[in-house]
Design goal:
EC number: 2.5.1.7
Largest sheet: 4 strands, mixed
CATH class of the largest domain: Alpha Beta
InterPro entries: Enolpyruvate_Tfrase_dom, Enolpyruvate_Tfrase_sf, MurA_subfamily, RNA3'P_cycl/enolpyr_Trfase_a/b, UDP_GlcNAc_COvinyl_MurA
Strand order of the largest sheet: 22-23-1-24
Bound molecules: uridine-diphosphate-N-acetylglucosamine
Shape: elongated
CATH topology of the largest domain: UDP-n-acetylglucosamine1-carboxyvinyl-transferase, Chain
Strand content: 25-35%
Keywords: Cell cycle, Cell division, Cell shape, Cell wall biogenesis/degradation, Cytoplasm, Peptidoglycan synthesis, Pyruvate, Transferase
Distance between the termini: 6 Å
Binding site for UDP-N-acetyl-alpha-D-glucosamine: 93, 122-126, 305, 327
Enzyme class: transferase
Helix content: 25-40%
Radius of gyration: 21 Å
């Protein structure tokens, strides 16, 4: 069990930070390495618990891997098993997409239903329907999906709604073979584009990544190569919000501002000074920001993964802000905890009214990764001491959190998040 994190709040964060690589780009790319017999090297992979959990699953399926600092070498000359068991899949929803890779490479796969999560149901029906539409036979029994393809996946998939994981699932399933697959209403997230770039490096032909219509032409066999993952726009956004919540100043190096339009425009309109270059973002907070409303939605809209962090930030801004999450309408587990710090929040018909004011320290708990990000932001802004429990969730998504906060001048105590501790 992770030790609680203790934050002495009320100090404006100031300094410079280099953005870490994107967890949500790294995960599908790691799974994508299953598609080829050749070695793959990924540069600058985040050392996060979710990555370790996925590596455990890949090793179970036949991948050999080795870390060299933050560089990860992966090699899957043979798939030795086509079953992804519950113990491994249930730890992290993202691992469900190994099904697509197993189907592509071995023609069959068996994967348990991924576990639920703290902020509401997250079904996989769109993944299953999409694969069936491409001719894959899938049976479900006692929470396990068994999939088999007779020929190669072929045709068109029309998603009822854009789904990041569903789009990745189809990209994986379609990466090998002589056929062509078109995805209509594909997810547009930068992580999808990064994944497509990685698959293209292996030899898959992809057109339209980052648009609503993407075409994937499989290859007979794929090569290997070396790839660098994009910076994490969610981590970057969380730090910007932490700095703005404490009315500080930061230079985020390695950030990609074009991936962060929705957040940057909100911060600018609130009165903060935001200056960007091709690979950096500078934020200088105003002492008196304006409140704003947020509708979290699919990219390029405001990211749902920044909805808890932005709610924490808005709790420090005098006035009323309305927050809705159109991707996960019940993603509000952070609300009760923010209230403990003195925030006034009213949730009615899935619209959260945030009445911003000064916060004060208390004992609170993180229930999921980004809800944990929200706790940290609120604690940094609150006067006095806050003790945050449930830090094992936060360690899934924020690498070296304590050290990075200290680098910005935050007063933080507690054991650093270590992978071996975080794995519960
Ligand atoms: C990914 C991200 C997650 C982010 C989410 C939305 C990773 C590892 N995780 O999750 O951090 O919060 O995108 O940006 O990249 N849905 C269905 N049926 C399905 C699949 C999805 O109803 O089969 C619904 C979901 O419940 C949700 C919406 O579609 O309401 C979007 O989910 P999706 O884009 O699939 O999220 P993930 O890929 O799981």
């Amino acid at each position: 069990m992770q030790q609680p994190l203790i934050i002495q709040g009320g100090t404006p964060l100031r300094g410079e930070l280099r953005v870490n690589p994107a967890k949500n780009a790294a995960l599908p790319i790691l799974v994508g390495s299953l598609l080829t017999r050749e070695p793959v090297t990924l540069e600058e992979v985040p050392r996060l618990r979710d990555i370790e959990v996925l590596l455990e699953l890949l090793a179970h399926l036949g991948t050999r891997y080795a870390w060299e600092g933050r560089t990860l070498h992966l090699h899957t000359p043979e798939i030795t098993r086509t079953q992804a068991p519950y113990e491994l899949v249930s730890k992290m929803r993202a691992s469900f997409i190994v099904l697509g890779a197993l189907l592509a490479r071995e023609g069959e796969g068996e994967v348990s239903m991924p576990g639920g999560c703290a902020f509401g149901p997250r079904p996989v029906d769109l993944h299953i329907k999409a694969l069936r539409d491409l001719g894959v036979e899938i049976h479900e029994e006692s929470g396990t999906f068994t999939a088999r393809r007779a020929g190669w996946p072929e045709g068109e998939v029309v998603f009822d709604r854009p789904t990041v994981g569903g789009t990745e699932q189809v990209m994986l399933a379609a990466a090998l073979g002589p056929t062509e697959v078109t995805i209509v209403n594909a997810a547009l997230e930068p992580e999808i584009v990064d994944f497509a770039n990685f698959l293209q490096m292996l030899g898959v032909q992809i057109e339209g990544a980052g648009t609503a219509k993407m075409t994937i032409r499989g290859a007979d066999a794929l090569g290997g190569g070396r790839y660098r993952i994009i910076p994490d726009r969610i981590e970057a956004g969380t730090y910007l919000l932490a700095v703005a919540a404490t009315r500080g100043e930061v230079l985020l190096e390695g950030a990609r501002p074009e991936h962060m339009d929705a957040l940057l425009s909100k911060l600018k309109n609130a009165g903060h000074t935001v200056v960007t270059g091709t690979d950096w973002v500078r934020l200088k907070s105003t002492a008196n920001p304006e409140p704003f409303d947020v509708d979290a939605r699919e990219y390029p809209g405001f990211p749902t993964d920044l909805q808890p962090p932005v709610t924490a930030y808005l709790a420090t801004v005098p006035g009323v802000s309305l927050v809705r999450d159109l991707v996960y309408p019940d993603r509000f587990t952070h609300v009760g905890e923010l209230a403990r710090l003195g925030a006034e929040l009213h949730l009615k018909e899935r619209v959260l009214a945030v009445h911003g004011r000064g916060l004060t320290g208390a004992r609170i708990k993180a229930f999921d990764i980004r809800g944990g990000g929200a706790m940290v932001i609120a604690a940094l802004a609150a006067e006095g001491e806050t003790v945050i429990e449930g830090m094992q969730h936060v360690g899934r998504g924020y690498e070296d959190l304590e050290d990075r906060l200290r680098q910005l001048g935050a007063v933080v105590y507690g054991e650093p998040v270590r992978l071996e501790q975080a794995a519960d």
